[in-house]
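Workshop exercise sheet. Pairs work together: one partner reads the sequence aloud, the other fills in the structure field after running the prediction. Swap roles for the next sheet.
Pair: D.N. / O.F.
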Amino acid sequence: MSAHQRGTGTAASSPSPSVGSGRLSSRPVLAWASWDWGSAAFNAVMTTFVFTVYLTSDAFGGEARASQVLGWGLAAAGLLIALLAPVTGQRSDTGGRRRLWLGVNSLLVAVLTGLCFFVFPSPEMLFLGVALIAVANIFFEFANVNYNAMLTQISTPSSIGRVSGFGWAMGYLGGIVALLVVLVAFVEPVVDWPGASSDNGLNIRLVAVFSALWFAAFALPVLFAVPEVPRRPDAPRPGILASYALLVRRVRTIHRESPHTIYFLLASAVFRDGLAAVFTFGGVLAAGAFGFSTSQVIVFAIVANVTAASGAVVGGFLDDRVGPKRVIIGSLLGLLVAGTAILVLGTRSYEVFGRDWTSDTTFWVFGLLLTLFVGPAQASSRAYLARLAPPGGEGEIFGLYATTGRAVSFLAPALFALSITVFGSQLSGVVGILVVLLAGLLLLLPVRPPAVGHASASTG
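Structure field:
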């Protein structure tokens, strides 16, 4: 593949094998979306609404301190991902191992998730818990690079938006089912059984085992339904250090021949960090700042996932009609309004038209608005880049997507933690998230969008 082809997204000599028509009901699309469904056990249960809430409870040394440690731990994981993700994507492209590494990294995430069973409720165990979640995040992002790269294999240029939105929606719906199981089996069990005991955090530690098994099971279909990309015999096979040199040369070529691809990677890096923070710290804020119990957090999470799934599906169809940039901008504006309302209204009660407006109402109304807009922004961001990716180089471009994202992924966690440190309250962490979302929006505005209905845009 020539440098020009890789930079502009024109046809390659060894394109990824096409296995689907882009119909949402096709076997490859359903199998691909199954991975998103299964990954919800890690995203929704472990890193958002259950296990991180457990890690930031008083049992681990206080909510504020534990939240700070979690924030810095995730920031450190982000830096490692930034250094490694593009080369892993590049090497899976050229070596014909995209599906293989999706399976390997998914397995590692499942194992690390299962090991969270050994995180007992004690201040001394905080660093172990954060370390397991942080390292699992690293391998999850490596898997996600290869998973996202498969999008062009199972969709068509005119269906990329809705297929991407369908995948995100399946992830949110999978989160609903997983959270319901966690709620009725472990947190507020409908049947009294030993695993539901809260002694020594047993029920939450067993949630980690359940999440590991859930993810592993639903990650399997894509490994059988989507074929491996062909090995490119003419492609260079450099060592690890030489891979970085090759990567730098390719980035320079893309910047010279298709600069708006680079501009989008940088803008999306910033706003995607803010999007991730909304879910990462959403459950933590619900429990710590607004006083939700574990069961209340899970109920909120279930409703939030329904809302996010609906937003992702609608956003996906809009994406194929009006383009991903407009969907992303509208979503970011909605996020900024909802987040500001949570910050301004805070945990106080008000009288509105003769009725009491409580802090619970604030979080329910504006927290759900946040989730409504997160889904479309995430799905359209993935579809945006898929339209720019050169055939046969999807892994590398999505590796850059992960790298640019993770290169700044310390921003939202760090600003979240810093805001708590400066202002002294957990709710003030929202300030850091809003700053990141606003910065991402401003960076996106001058970026030229890709053409709707085409795999790539004509950029200059």
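Discussion prompt: The chain has a mean pLDDT of 83. What would you look at next?
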